[in-house]
Amino acid sequence: EEAGPGRRGEREAGEGPAERGPGAAFHMFVVMEDLLDKLKLLSYEEEALRRHNMRPLSRHYFALPTNPGEQFFMFCTLAAWLITKAGHPFEQPQECDDPNAVISNVLSELRSF
């Protein structure tokens, strides 16, 4: 039997969520809820958010593009906190920092793991 794009788990280029199945469009919401559960287990509200006077994340915070600048800063804040929690000192990014530099620093630090 020839392996072709119709095989299970394989996608053709340009294939959208509708072609992957009815639940594919909602997968990002499930992933976000799993992320939020894991952050809560790590006490992110007490350790990360209160320190920066930020509100807790909603169940779909990163799943829907509502305010990209705010979402990017929240991502960077959580990334810095998680890196520090893992034992690598990492300076908390500021909102006025260059986004490319911030992402470069986060990726560089993660590669050092």
How would you describe this structure to a colleague?
It holds the Pfam family IFT57. One of its GO terms (biological process) is intraciliary transport. Keywords: Cell projection, Cilium. There is one protein chain. The protein is mostly helical and about 110 residues long. The protein has one domain. It is about 50% helix and about 0% strand. Helix 4 (about 70-85) runs parallel beside helix 5. Residues about 5-10 have low confidence and may be disordered.
Task: Tell me the count of domains.
Answer: 1
The counted number of beta strands is 0
Work out the helicity level: 40-55%
Class by alpha and beta content: mainly alpha
Question: What is the count of helical runs?
Answer: 5
**What order do the helices and strands follow?**
HHHHH
Question: What percentage of the residues does DSSP assign to strands (E)?
Answer: under 5%
Largest sheet: none
What general form does the structure show?
globular
- Measured between the Cα atoms of the first and last residue, the distance is 42 Å
Mean pLDDT: 84
Radius of gyration computed on alpha carbons? 18 Å
- The low-confidence runs, each spanning 5 or more residues with pLDDT under 50, are 6-11
